[in-house]
Design a protein that fits this description.
The chain is mainly α. Helix content is about 45%, strand content about 10%. It comes from [Ruminococcus] torques.
Length: about 240
């Protein structure tokens, strides 16, 4: 029987780790399942919960699940109905364009803090902006945190990451289009299927995500006003 740092006997299936936390281990059908806790009281509770789930088929073997498979589940079950459509699409875009190549086929349980740190350092070397790095970290970190909560992984490896910063980034002056340039742009865009999108963007100052999230009911043509889940109310004059 295992003992804690003070020599006190611990319940069967529970051991104290070098950092003072506790590991719970339960075996079923030749397979070992683990959970982690900060206190012995929490460890006893998690052991009982783990045994109950195992005995009632509540645990699915998750050691082989890849990050790509988990990302799909996370988006569908935790994000689809809790974030705005624009945010949801942004998450998908960043996954497809940046995260997917590196982690899609990696087993979720094999991703370590050092893997993530090297990934962010590599993105920095490719001149990704600080804002892009923060968003990628938020997406990866949130999905991994949920995997930890769901007991698919024993810890969130993102906790070990220090996000690098581009020290040489200089702010570029933002120059708005003149009215003449706007008119010329819209003339060239008149045959584009995105013409209405460009028109709303130029005449309202709305952000891309806000425009994509608009619904037909948000547009009051009679009074020339756009309503909706926006940070501002935009008054437009429709031709």
């Amino acid at each position: 029987m295992a003992v804690d740092k003070n020599g006190k006997k611990l319940p069967s299936g529970i051991r104290q780790r070098p950092n003072g936390s506790y590991e719970v281990r339960v075996s079923r059908n030749g397979k070992s399942y683990s959970a982690y806790a900060k206190t012995i009281t929490e460890a006893k509770k998690k052991k009982a919960e783990l045994e109950f789930k195992l005995d009632n088929n509540g645990i699915i073997e998750n050691k082989k699940i890849t990050y790509g498979e988990w990302f799909t589940q996370w988006m569908e079950n935790y994000k689809k109905n809790s974030v705005k459509k624009g945010t949801f699409n942004t998450y998908k875009y960043y996954y497809d364009s940046i995260i997917k190549e590196e982690f899609k086929n990696r087993k979720l349980s094999s991703i370590k803090g050092i893997d993530l740190q090297r990934f962010f350092n590599k993105l920095l070397a490719k001149n990704y902006s600080d804002s892009s790095l923060r968003l990628v970290k938020a997406i990866l970190g949130s999905s991994l945190k949920q995997a930890y909560k769901d007991e698919i992984i024993s810890r969130n490896p993102m906790d070990a990451v220090t996000l690098p910063k581009n020290k040489e980034v200089t702010k570029k002056e933002k120059i708005a289009l003149t009215r003449e340039q706007q008119t010329l742009f819209m003339e060239f865009a008149k045959d584009s299927y995105l013409y209405n999108y460009f028109a709303v963007s130029l005449r309202s100052g709305m952000r891309s995500g806000e425009i994509r999230g608009l619904k037909l009911g948000d547009i009051d043509k009679e009074n020339g006003v756009i309503h909706g889940q926006l940070s501002k109310v935009f008054n437009l004059k429709f031709n």
